[in-house]
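Hi R.,

Here's the chain you asked about this morning:
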Amino acid sequence: MKKLLDLITEEVVRAFEACDYKGEYGKVTLSNRPDLCEYQCNGCLAAAKEYHCAPIQIADKVVEKLGKSSVFAEALAVRPGFINLKVSNAYVQEYLRKMTEDERLGCDKTENPRTIIIDYGGPNVAKPLHVGHLRSAIIGESVKRLGRFVGHKVIGDIHLGDWGLQMGLIITELKQRKPELPYFDESYTGDYPTEAPFTISELEEIYPTASARSKEDESYKEEAMEATYLVQHGHRGYRAILRHILDVSVADLKKNYANLKVEFDLWKGESDAQPYIPELVAMLKGKGYAYESEGALVVDVEEDGDTKEVPPCMILKSDGASLYTTTDLATIVDRMKLYHPDEIIYVVDKRQEMHFVQVFRCARKTGLVESETELKFLGFGTMNGRDGKPFKTREGGVMRLENLIADINQEMYGKIVGNSEIGEEEAKETARIVGLSAIKYGDLSNQASKDYVFDVDRFTSFEGNTGPYILYTIVRIKSILNKYQALGKDPASCVIGKPRNETQKVLMLLLARFNGAVWNAFEEVAPHKICAYIYELANAFNKFYHETKILGEEDEGIRDNLVAVLMLTKKVLETCIDILGFEAPERM
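And here is the predicted structure, written out as C-alpha cells:
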C-alpha cells in the first residue's frame, strides 16, 4: 500500500505536468504550519527560475488543476508561490479503510529482502550484565525487529567476549582453589564432568578476585597469562573449563536478556572466530597487505581525503597475540562464509568508531567482504545519571542491570498500587510490563548517537513523552473497547467513517502516516523516529478522546465509525511498541 504522502505527491506531480511544468517540482511535504494546511508544495519557487516567471503564477495554474482533484478539499496558492493543501475527508476515510483491511496496516514488505546481521549485546562471559550493556541490547533489538517487520532476514548475534586474559585468570584462580579437579591433572585421559565446578554466583566472584590479585602478584599474573596461552592453543582440560564458563554464563545471560525481551539468534563469541585467524594472517601476509611495524603485524587503511589520521589496523601484537581487530576481522570471515549477509550492522559505543573504521577498511581492502556488502557502525552515546556522568549506583559503583530493572519495577509497582484497584499479583506483573516500557522507551526515544540522562522519575511518569504514557493510552483504548463489547457489540465489525471535526481528522491523518514512519525509521536505522511518531499519535488520540463523545454518541452509526478509529489506533500503537520491544498490559 502506497504511503499517503506519495499518493498526494503523485497527484500534485500530475497537475504540474498538466500545466507543462516538470513533475519534479511537485514534491509535497508535511506542512510546517499545521494551523494553515496539512501538506505543502514549495516547488513553484524553484520552477520560477527555470520558466522565467513569478512563482505565484505557476502556483495559480497548478492549483486550478488541483481544484478538480478528489484528493483535496482545498488547494491554495499563497505568495510568493507556496501551494497549501488539505486532503478531502472522503480520501482520508478511504485510505484508512484500506489500512484496516490489511493485516500489516498498509505497511508493505520490501520487494528485495536482504540478509542483515546485527552485532549487538557484546557482554563478557563470567561477568554480570550492568547498565553499560543496556543501550546495545535495547537499540539492537529494536533495529532487528524493525528490519524483520519490513521484510528482511535479520540475524541477531550477541558476540560474546569469551577470549583473552580473563579466561586465564578464572582458570588460575580455580586451580588454586580446587587443585584436585581433573582439568588440572595432565595425566587424566577420561571424560570431564558434565556439570560445571562453579555456579554463576561463584564465577562472578572468581573473576574480580583473580583480576585484583593479578595486579598485585606478578607471578600470579604470569601464571594466568600462561593459562590463557594454553587455553587458546587447545589445552584439553582448560578448553573443558572454558566450555563450562560459557555454558554457565550463557544460561544466566539468557535469563537476564529475557527480562529485557531481548533475543539473539546466534550466541557466538570471540572464541568462534579463532579457527579463522591463522588462515587470515597467512592470507594478509601472502597477498602483501600486512607488514611488520615495530614487531607488530599491521595493514595500512589510510585513504586519500582523510581529514584526520587513521592509524594502521593492527593484526598481531609484537608477541604474536591477536587483538579485537583480529577477532572482528575473523568474525567477518565467519559471517560471510556461513550467512552471506548483504549488510552487517554493529551496535556499539560510539567511542569505538575509529576501531570500526579500521576494521571496515581492512575488510574491504583485503577482500574479506564482497564489494556490495554494507558494513555499518551504529554508535550510541552514554547513559548518564542526573549529574551528567555515566549512570552509577548510589555508592558510586557500576549498577547491575538486574538491579536497575528491579528498582524500576518497584517504582512502577508503587504507582500502580496507589492508582488502581487491581490485586497484588496483577499489580506486580503490570509493574514489570510498564517498567520495561519505561526503560526501553526512555532509551529509544533519544537519538542513538546522543548521550542522555536516565531520569527514573521522568521515565516512570504516566505523563509526557514516556513509555508508561504510551501504554496508558493503549489501556485507555482497551477499556473503551471492552465497554463497547459489554454492550453486545463487536468492535471488529465497525468501519471507519469520514472525520467529523478537525481533532478527529488530525488523528486519522496521523494513522495514515504509519507506513511512512516505519519505513523512514528503518531506512535511517533510527528507532527514535518510531517513538516520536507514537508520542504524536498518542497525544492526538488523547485530545480526540477528551473532545469527543464515543460510547455516549447517540447516533449508532457515528458511534461505530468512532470505535473503528479506536481499533485502528490501538493496532498501530501495539504494532509500534512491539517493534520497540515491549507490550501493553490489559489495565493499569
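One quick note: Residues 556-580 form the longest helix (25 residues).

Cheers,
M.
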